[in-house]
Amino acid sequence: MEEMKNQSFEEMLKRLEEIVRALDNVETPLETSLALFEEGAKLVRLCTDKLDAAQQKVTILTSAPDGSVTEAPFQGIGR
Fold first, then answer.
1. pLDDT of 48-61, one tens digit each?
2. Are 42 and 4 in contact (CB under 8 A)?
3. Which residues pair with 60 in a beta bridge?
4. CB–CB of 55/74 below 8 Å?
5. For residue range 63-75, what is the model confidence (pLDDT) as tens digits?
């Protein structure tokens, strides 16, 4: 899992796409499918963590009526 944490978001997403293709293949053995599913679940958690961290860094710049600019934390969708 530590090796996964060191990957970029894009690398993890690419691996998830590979896993989905393998799971869609009816010739993939059951044991392999279960291992891939477990790996995919870990990758989804790590991707979500990276997205949450990125979202926390985003700020919204707003313009006040007097022309000044203020920063506010990004609240996200549905928050």
1. 999 988 877 776 77
2. yes
3. 72
4. yes
5. 778 888 887 777 7
Q: Tokens at residue 69, please?
A: 């600019």
pTM of the model: 0.70
End-to-end distance of the chain based on CA atoms, in angstroms?
A: 30
Residue 23: φ, ψ to 5°: -70, -30
Q: Measured between alpha carbons, how far is 64 from 19 in angstroms, rounded to an integer?
A: 48
71 membership: H or E segment, kind and range: strand 69-73
**20-53 burial string, b = 16+ CB within 10 Å, else e?**
eeeeeeeeeeeeeeeebeebbeebeebbeebeee
Q: CA of 51: how far to CAs of 7, 32, 35, 37, 61, in Å?
A: 14, 28, 24, 21, 20
